[in-house]
Q: What sequence folds into this?
């Protein structure tokens, strides 16, 4: 092996995972970060759009003097030719949402490596942090795999469990996974330098796959039980937020709820009550207290904004 191993980083332009990976790879004495491949111009990863603290991987790479490539299609012949000339030992893929073709994956001298924020083979695909919280899981994990031409199907190099207490939001789990992936990169680098990996195939009988959440996933379904609705709200925090519509078409984004210990008689899904400035909404089996809502991009106490609900004491929601 040479004194330094050449690496190409693939990440989204505004990625909160790509930014620390860039800093670690660019400063490590045994790594030569020869290029960063990132999003096309005017394309942002939706995960981070409304985060208060934002990153710009291209700007960071420019300051460090690292070559940045922003192809419209990562499979373009021009990019493949340019990356081949760089003669990298590894690709490191960290929150990059274009599919790498077999021809692209064959470029590294040793292997392409992907950091995936789930306990593979479970929760392959996009936005695992959303689905793990939505499904009320009690444990998550992060995985490092040797990439093949499938979708998150390659053999596992490393995996690290993450225990959950059941109160995490989607964005909190995403942040925790980013932090743990950064630590796992530091563990991986010595193995990369040695070029001596061991890995095990995924057991595909246990595989689950989830796509990008859609509008219907964020639309609250009060015909479900209270536990499910709470998980919906936590998973969608904070962007775009779990929401519903009043009969007049007004959209309300709920940011936090708890299952109420109060009893208001028969439960009819999709009813709202306002009692002593507190706001409650009914599900299939229980009442929920709405704690906070989104008002013009700010998280506001539902009690402080309770006049918004003063259309009637009870409001029938659209289905």
A:
């Amino acid at each position: 092996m040479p004194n330094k191993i050449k690496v190409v980083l693939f990440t989204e332009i505004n990625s909160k995972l790509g930014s620390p990976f860039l800093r670690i790879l660019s400063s490590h004495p045994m790594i030569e970060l020869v290029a960063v491949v990132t999003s096309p111009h005017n394309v942002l990863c939706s995960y981070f759009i409304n985060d208060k603290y934002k990153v710009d991987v291209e700007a960071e790479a420019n300051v460090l003097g690292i070559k940045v490539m922003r192809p419209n299609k990562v499979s373009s012949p021009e990019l493949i030719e340019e990356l081949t000339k760089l003669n990298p030992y590894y690709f490191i893929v960290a929150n990059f949402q274009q599919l790498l073709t077999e021809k692209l994956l064959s470029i590294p001298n040793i292997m392409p490596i992907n950091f995936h924020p789930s306990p593979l083979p479970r929760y392959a695909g996009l936005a695992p942090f959303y689905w793990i919280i939505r499904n009320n899981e009690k444990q998550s994990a992060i995985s490092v795999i040797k990439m093949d031409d499938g979708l998150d199907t390659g053999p596992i190099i490393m995996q690290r469990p993450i225990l959950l207490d059941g109160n995490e939001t989607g964005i909190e789990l995403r942040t925790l996974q980013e932090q743990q992936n950064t630590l796992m990169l530091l563990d991986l680098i010595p193995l990369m330098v040695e070029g001596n990996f061991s890995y095990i195939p995924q057991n595909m009988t246990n595989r689950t796959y989830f796509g990008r959440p859609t509008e219907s996933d964020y639309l609250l379904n009060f015909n479900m039980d209270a536990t499910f609705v709470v998980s919906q709200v936590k998973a969608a925090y904070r962007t775009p937020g779990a929401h519903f519509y009043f009969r007049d078409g007004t959209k309300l984004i709920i940011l936090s709820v708890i299952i109420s210990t109060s009893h208001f008689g028969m439960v009819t899904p999709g009813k709202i009550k306002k009692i002593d400035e507190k706001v409650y909404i009914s599900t299939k089996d229980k009442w929920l207290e709405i704690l906070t809502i989104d008002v013009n991009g700010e998280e506001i106490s539902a009690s402080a904004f309770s006049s918004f609900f003063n259309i009637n004491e009870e409001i029938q929601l659209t289905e």
In short: The chain has two domains: 5-210, 215-316. Residues 311-316 have pLDDT under 50 and may be disordered.
